[in-house]
Design goal:
The complex is a heterodimer.
Chain A lengths: L5 E10 L2 E11 L4 E5 L6 H8 L7 E6 L13 E4 L11 H11 L4 H14 L15 H13 L5 E4 L8 H16 L3 E6 L2 H7 L2 E6 L2 E7 H9 L1 E7 L6 H5 L5 E7 L2 E6 L5 H10 L4 E7 L3 H9 L10 H7 L1
Parallel strand pairs in A: 3-7, 3-8, 5-6, 6-7
Antiparallel strand pairs in A: 1-2, 1-4, 8-9, 10-12, 10-13, 11-12
Helix pairs in contact in A: 2-3, 2-4
Chain B lengths: L1 H16 L1 H28 L2 E8 L4 H11 L3 E7 L4 H10 L5 E6 L1 H5 L3 E4 L5 H22 L4 H7 L10 E2 L2 E2 L4 H35 L3 H7 L2 H32 L1 H5 L15 H28 L3 H7 L1 H19 L4 H8 L4 H11 L4 H29 L9 H10 L1
Parallel strand pairs in B: 1-2, 1-3
Antiparallel strand pairs in B: 3-4, 5-6
Helix pairs in contact in B: 1-10, 2-10, 3-6, 8-10, 8-12, 8-14, 8-16, 12-16, 12-17, 14-16, 15-16, 17-18
Classes of the chains: A alpha/beta, B alpha/beta.
Chain lengths: 321, 415
């Protein structure tokens, strides 16, 4: 097992009478896309900020690149895209990029051709001497993303990576992330949107209320938390589906939404029996598939519906932000 | 250190690129120039005063005084004998601006020293000063003659006094008159007050901008908050020094062209262009930097505590008041730079940046006092910066309600 790029050991952070992160440990191996998943208010941003040494943990340690030193000491090797995006509105685009690269320890003269190159790739060449606040929101997002990777970091950390991105930028981001991984870089990002995580992540760690619920490779998690799953698509007529799905001897859980259903079978549940029962009851099916559970399903099972209340505490939000 | 320089560079370049910087650079010398030139113009425009001397004496005193006043370049004096209606008709003449004023002299004047002067303007201290000087000289001479002193001897004893007041500094004469000292102290006070306020608030808005645009999170993941604060203060400080240089050069230029521009001579007004020597400039710069560092640290803390412009405007009030109080007390100090109040104010670190340079310019100071004041200021800067940096570190990542004093103390302790 190679030395992890990020090794977090039992870090805890408390804010005014509320524990945001509680003895959380995780380990990000090199060259993977690692998803830190959790509902709003789970402690994702706080964890990321502690990894980057923006906050100091109350207890526990963070080790980066297998070396000593804080996130700020290694800042030249880390790119960070925070949840709340923002640039200097009155600065010229190129100047912002050069300034942020300088803060990462890159020489201005060395950063300049790279910045121009990235601006060209993102179709922003004509805007390089314009002020940031003259750009559209989508263009500003691109500029901010360039600033995150301009210094060629070994570790890219993105908080709520895809939130607020339009579909085009979302695709650009995803392509670039995959390209970076292909070049051996490590990507750590947080999100509460499971579909995105499922598409790109190799590893995931699910947290809720500051505590880790599960972590591992996506495949492992699906295997251990999967059970037997069946995906069903109706083609108009549902027959007696609701009664069949309610049979607790066969079906442990059913997640039904209109013409689609995801079933988790019990240990003795038999997919063939269910299929037979559905067809007999007159349901028309366009799909009946034995499947791995979706990450979203695992997530909801683990976190539970009450997890949403964790983020509803106003004092928690104030001190976290 | 390279990162601090990057922050300094950004603060400097972005500010100097802004339009208001050049507007300030262009307008300020015009403003200061006006402060110097307008009073001079007004004084010289006053020109010669036409006065009437109402002579109620039975001796030749009235006639002699008229002749003596007429010899002064400032006056055209005419003597009229006293009559019951003179006073009223002369008042009317003053009203019609036919004459500028009139003197009433009678026999008791020599004994009591009481002489009446009625004029449309009695606030010009050049006019009043000259009148007082001439009359007391004449009265003295007359009294002595009455006691039997030889008129020739009186004439001889009457050495016209020309008090050549020059400020002594560092054991040397500075070639600076009392009027110039006053003007210098006055200008330094105004400039220090304006510059510390302006650039302190600049630091505050810079902190606030990074907070409201959320870019601060990226910044503090790359540099330590203290480096960021340091770079910011040094950058804005460099802009202020650059602005001073521009002001200095352009004011010099403007003043050298003064004669051509306004036609008048150098003028004898109270606002003569003071001579700024090396040590005065050093004191000015030292206290400006001290004041700027002290106040900008406080303004930075205010910016970090607030989450928008309105909040910041409210939260900055105590800091601004501190500075305004120091500025207002300058006028008391100009009167008596050596008073206990003045000495105390020049030792308190929050008022010292204005008080000490004002006292220095107005009168000679023992170097030990300057050293003590600078020492207190330095220690205070370190202390205040230490506290402000802690508030800053916690504040820049905080949103929501502005903390009250109690929470603030807790934060500073915890940070």
């Amino acid at each position: 097992m190679p030395e992890p790029i990020v090794a977090v050991d039992r870090i805890t952070k408390r804010f005014a009478g509320h524990t945001a992160v509680d003895a959380l440990s995780l380990s990000v191996p090199p060259g993977v896309i690692f998803g830190l998943l959790g509902p709003n208010g789970a402690g994702k941003s706080t964890t990321i900020r502690m990894i980057l040494n923006i906050y100091a943990p109350d207890s526990g340690t963070v080790r980066l690149f297998g070396e000593s030193g804080t996130g700020r000491d290694h800042t030249g090797r880390i790119g960070y895209l925070p949840e709340e995006r923002g640039l200097y509105p009155k600065m010229r685009v190129l100047d912002v990029l050069l300034f942020l690269a300088e803060l990462k320890g890159v020489d201005r003269r060395a950063a300049r051709p790279k910045a121009l190159d990235w601006l060209a790739r993102m179709g922003l060449s004509d805007w390089r001497m314009r002020k940031v606040n003259e750009l559209s929101k989508g263009m500003q997002q691109k500029v901010q993303f360039i600033s995150t990777i301009l210094h060629e970091p070994d570790l890219l950390v993105m908080d709520e990576a895809f939130s607020g991105l339009d579909p085009v930028n979302s695709q650009v981001l995803k392509d670039t992330v995959l390209e970076l991984r292909a070049r051996g870089k490590t990507i750590l990002f947080s999100t509460h949107i499971m579909e995105q995580a499922e598409k790109v992540c190799d590893h995931v760690c699910i947290i809720a209320r500051g505590k880790k619920l599960v972590d591992g490779t996506l495949a492992d998690i699906k295997r251990t938390h999967g059970g037997k799953h069946v995906l069903v698509n109706f083609d108009g007529t549902r027959g007696d589906a609701d009664r069949i799905f309610a049979d607790r001897r066969q079906v442990a859980k059913a997640d039904v939404s209109g013409q689609f259903a995801e079933l988790e079978l019990t240990a003795q549940g038999d997919a063939q029996e269910i299929l037979k029962a559905l067809v007999t009851s007159g349901a028309r099916l366009s799909r009946f598939e034995l499947a791995e559970p979706s990450l979203n399903k695992i997530f909801i099972d683990l976190v539970g519906p009450e997890a949403a209340t964790a983020s509803a505490r106003p004092d928690a939000e104030v001190s976290r932000a | 250190m390279r990162k601090v320089l990057a922050v300094v560079r950004r603060e400097f370049v972005e500010r100097v690129r802004q339009r208001w910087f050049w507007v300030m650079a262009a307008l300020a010398p015009v403003f200061f120039g006006a402060l110097v030139i307008v009073p001079t113009l007004l004084m010289s425009k006053g020109g010669v005063k036409r006065i009437v001397l109402v002579d109620g004496t039975t001796s030749t005193f009235g006639m002699e005084l008229t002749a003596r006043l007429d010899r002064e370049s400032l006056f055209i004096a005419v003597r009229v004998p006293v009559s019951s209606r003179t006073s009223d008709s002369l008042m009317a003449a003053v009203d019609r601006k036919e004459i500028d004023g009139f003197l009433i002299v009678n026999d008791v004047a020599v004994d009591s020293g009481k002489v009446m002067y009625r004029a449309s303007n009695v606030s010009s201290f050049v006019t009043i000063g000259t009148l007082e000087h001439v009359i007391s000289e004449m009265v003295n001479a007359r009294r002595l003659e009455r006691e039997g002193v030889n008129p020739a001897l009186v004439q001889k004893a009457r050495i016209p006094l020309q008090l050549d007041s020059k400020k002594v500094s560092g054991g040397k004469e500075t070639g600076q008159s009392a009027g110039q000292s006053f003007a210098l102290a006055y200008f330094m006070g105004i400039i220090l007050y304006m510059a510390i306020l302006l650039y302190g608030i600049n630091v505050m808005s810079s902190v606030l901008e990074e907070k409201t645009t959320k870019i601060v999170e990226v910044l503090v993941s790359s540099v330590r908050p203290f480096q960021l604060l340091l770079g910011k203060v040094l950058g804005v400080g460099a802009v202020s020094i650059f602005q001073f240089l521009l002001w200095g050069v352009s004011t010099r230029l403007l003043l050298s062209q003064r004669a051509k521009l306004f036609g008048g001579g150098d003028g004898g007004g109270p606002f003569q262009m003071p001579h700024v020597n090396g040590s005065t400039a050093a004191i000015f710069i030292a206290y400006f930097l001290g004041g700027f560092l002290l106040y900008s640290a406080m303004f930075a803390a205010v910016g970090a505590m607030s989450s928008n412009e309105q909040e910041a405007r409210q939260a900055q009030q105590p800091v601004v008041m501190l500075l305004v109080a120091s500025f207002i007390s300058m006028f008391a100090m100009l009167n008596d730079p050596g008073s206990t109040l003045s000495v105390t104010l020049s030792m308190i670190p929050f008022s010292a940046p204005i008080a000490m340079p004002v006292r220095w310019a107005a009168g000679n100071l023992p170097l030990s006092e300057v050293a003590l004041s600078l020492g207190i200021l330095t220690v205070s800067i370190l202390g205040v910066t230490w506290i402000a940096a802690r508030i800053y570190r916690v504040g820049i990542l905080m949103t929501g309600k502005r903390p009250n004093i109690k929470e603030l103390v807790r934060r500073v302790r915890a940070a």
